[in-house]
Amino acid sequence: MGGHVLRRAATDHTPRRPVLPGQPISPFSVPIFRSIWLASMSSNFGGLVQAVGASWLMTTLSDSPQEVALVQASTALPIMFFSLAAGAIADNLDRRKVMLCAQIYMVVVSLLLAFFAWNDWLTPWGLLGFTFAIACGTALNNPAWQAAVGDMVPRNALPGAVALNSMGFNMARSVGPAIGGAIVAVAGAAGAFLTNALSYIGLIVVLLRWHPDRKPRTLPRERIDVAMAAGLRYVAMSPNLCIVLLRGCLFGAAAAAIPALMPIVARDLIVGGPLTYGILLGAFGIGAVGGALSSGRLRARFTTEGIVRIASVAMVLGAVGAGLSRTLILTLPALMLAGSGWVLALSTFNVTVQLSTPRWVVGRALSLYQMATFGGMAAGAWGFGAVAESHGVTLALLAAAALQAAGGVSGLVLPLPAGGDEDLEPLDNLGEPETAVPVHARSGPIVITIEHRVPEANIPAFVRAMNERRRILRRDGAQRWTLLRDLAETELWIERYHVATWLEYIRDRQRRTRADQENSQQIRALHIDGHTPRVHRMIERPVGSASSEHTPGGQEAGDPMTDPTRAN
């Protein structure tokens, strides 16, 4: 019998996720999550000190509010440009090694930035180039870290883990910027950049000491370009994820104005220095910690959409307050309110994406969410920076508040999905089917036809169910899906679709989830009593091809499934 694609197993370094049923547990009960979370606190602290140094250094290098706002844009653009590739890497490679490479890269770039700043070699565009380069490391690291969280902790602890990640970042934000402002005031921007370089060491040490369980991999890794296309296809064919991405983009575009213009608020509206700027960022961070701490109680009382609406209201009030205030007494509570809305919305979006996506593609789904959100942030930082330059920072913040309100109202038309209602665990019974004709990984194209026998009364419901099946199969990689009705036998319907190779067919089968099985069961229930779907798996062969007679199943020389030296 043919079919040897699944019998050669490789290994993957992805950690096994503990299965702990019951009520939500504390993510801190998982040792590796606790260790990496604590180490990340140091890294987050250094990153915020670096952000203060870069933003304030730009105010000394340039008088243009737009160039100051571009510091925020330069940290968001790499996430928009490179996150999809980083997500594909996170889903296909050892996430621990990916995170290590990203951290070491950021150490090197941060040291170079500190060296250039110490020697006064930086120009506005040189500073933007360095901040862009550091953000490229962040873009590589984030999908691997966020996808690894879902592997470290059980599903019922995932919302808490995401909230703790946000809280950890914003705990650092609550004190980091103020300390960063003091470091800039005493040691200059070079001191802030050196502090950031040193902050990565703790996380590197933890990652070097972490030895996650190896999980067997039954199929070879996808090429990065193929994996990126699969991620794009999956999200594009998932309406719930599309809504999250759109809402995240709208929120990010409006929300970016506050951190992007905060140096101008400190310098022009409150007439302060780098320490004042650090205090403003600290207030924003304290509010974000409060938002993270309250997220669990809010999830128990409100829907996902309700939480994001509350966050939008908080951001609107914060932007209006910061734009109209001229004293710290009023600006600080406004920024605390904005910080709470910031973390509530972003952590809710993140959790919704993770709970709405199966593990095989979660890194790419998170990366696309980040691309949408941070792309919105980059556009918002640039756009509101331009408004601030031509019409003043107050008008720019009021315009951002108006856009934020519009984003909240959009929930009436595009409400967010609840997330977590579907069972996205993979089906265990969809291995490689046996074949009478020998086939190999590259055999193809493969054509699948499925016979359905449906009574006349069930046809409307059957067509609706098949429309959903079409979405599921196309989402997972099926091509040229069609539904045919036999003109001679009225109860006979033929479902037909193509996949490029036998390997891709097996890969697509392994992507089916228990939630998808509900659709299959619904279709089976609509069949004529005693009939079940009959599947035909066929391989296309050109007529008169001599080679097909000598290469059964279409095996090619150097097949990666039979030649280990050519495996990805």
Can you give me a brief rundown of this structure?
It contains 18 helices and 6 strands. With 568 residues, it is an alpha+beta fold.
Can you walk through the features of this model?
- This protein has 568 residues and is α+β, with helices and mostly antiparallel strands.
- It contains 18 helices and six strands.
- It has a four-stranded antiparallel β-sheet with strand order 4-5-3-6. A two-stranded antiparallel ribbon has the order 1-2.
- β4 (479-485) and β5 form a beta hairpin.
- α3 (95-118) runs antiparallel to α6, α10 crosses α12 (328-355) and α11 (304-324) packs antiparallel against α14 (393-409).
- The radius of gyration is 26 Å and the shape is elongated.
- It starts with 9 loop residues before the first strand and ends in an 18-residue tail after the last helix.
- Residues 6-22 and 546-568 have low confidence and may be disordered.
Strand-helix topology:
Elements: E1 10-12, H1 31-61, H2 65-92, H3 95-118, H4 124-152, H5 158-199, H6 201-209, E2 215-217, H7 224-236, H8 239-255, H9 257-269, H10 274-301, H11 304-324, H12 328-355, H13 362-391, H14 393-409, E3 446-453, H15 459-476, E4 479-485, E5 492-499, H16 502-510, H17 514-525, E6 534-539, H18 546-550
Radius of gyration: 26 Å
Between the first and last Cα atoms, what is the distance in angstroms? 26 Å
Count of helix runs:
18
Strand content: 5-15%
* SS-based class: alpha+beta
Average pLDDT for all residues: 83
Uncertain runs = 6-22, 546-568
Give the topology string: H per helix, E per strand.
EHHHHHHEHHHHHHHHEHEEHHEH
Helix content: 55-70%
Largest sheet: 4 strands, antiparallel
Strand line-up in the sheet with most strands: 4-5-3-6
Shape: elongated
Number of strands: 6
